[in-house]
Design brief:
This protein has 334 residues and is mainly beta. The chain has helices at 79-82, 286-289, 313-320, and strands spanning 24-26, 46-48, 69-71, 96-98, 118-120, 141-143, 163-165, 185-187, 206-208, 228-230, 250-252, 272-274, 299-301, 326-327, 330-331. It has two domains: 1-193, Leucine-rich repeat, LRR (right-handed beta-alpha superhelix); 225-334, Leucine-rich repeat, LRR (right-handed beta-alpha superhelix).
Length: 334
Amino acid sequence: MEPPKPTDTMIGDNNDEESSPMTILDATSYQLHDLDSIEFPLSLIEIDLTANRLNKLDSRISNLSNLKKLSLRQNLFDDAGVAPISNWNAISGLEELVLRDNQLKNIPDVSIFKNLFVFDVSFNEISSMSGLSKASNTLKELYVSKNEVTKIEEIEHFHELQILELGSNKLRVMENMQNLTNLQELWLGRNRIKSINLCGLKCIKKLSLQSNRLTSMEGLEECTSLEELYLSHNGIAKMEGLSTLINLRVLDVSSNKLSAIEDIEKLPCLEDLWFNDNQLTSLDGISEAVYGSREKLTTIYLEHNPCAKSPGYVTTLRQIFPNIEQIDSEMFAY
């Protein structure tokens, strides 16, 4: 496969490629070991080098003063390989830096990027969030999933943060998030967390704590903005603390130890209820249990509960929920 040439990805204000400056360089999946064959016009705003074999930065990128987005995803960069970027002042206007799926062991120094909005170091070998204190307080999206992180730290200054992804790490405690007053999405699945502590945050709309060590739902009561809640694959035995979540649309409590559907009868917006792989023995009372969203509910999963083997299981659910579109894996057309 021939490496990309400037004319391959030339994008400007009109369709005349000869007169339009090149602003986007897409060199994904070329398996390049270096970038010697590629030109870097000073007009570049975005560079995507995903899925190559790069382990060092091309110094010509340091001159691209218009650069806003740089993706080095799925390469072979280690700490030394990305270190030079910390001194490339000409590209200090960078807004998005993606270092996902490389070989980093530490958070790189990104202190020169005063307008950084998106920072992604997921799928590396990072054991500590140390170094994030140097990142700009303009950050809106931070991704550190699939690493070896043991503690949530050095994020207190991210007042503008909207998305925090820390799934698949070694976290045991939810902490140091009280200043993230604009946080919309918090992803903490596949960790070792035993209890819910949202540090007083009330603005979160999406929360995932799947595959942790939870035995209780306590701690959600004040999160009245929640729209999506994912708590599957834990050890929860009772549904509680949900009655105040009046904006909840999606609730996933599958693969727990629940024997009853409780505390959601007044929720008016619920569309998806995932309750599969629990211990619900009967459909008796389910209409009352989901009364507030009986007309709204379109998807319900109850498979792998004892009640799913009862006669007329699907028919009964379709009678209870008039607008149901999916029961377990079965779809219905209206």
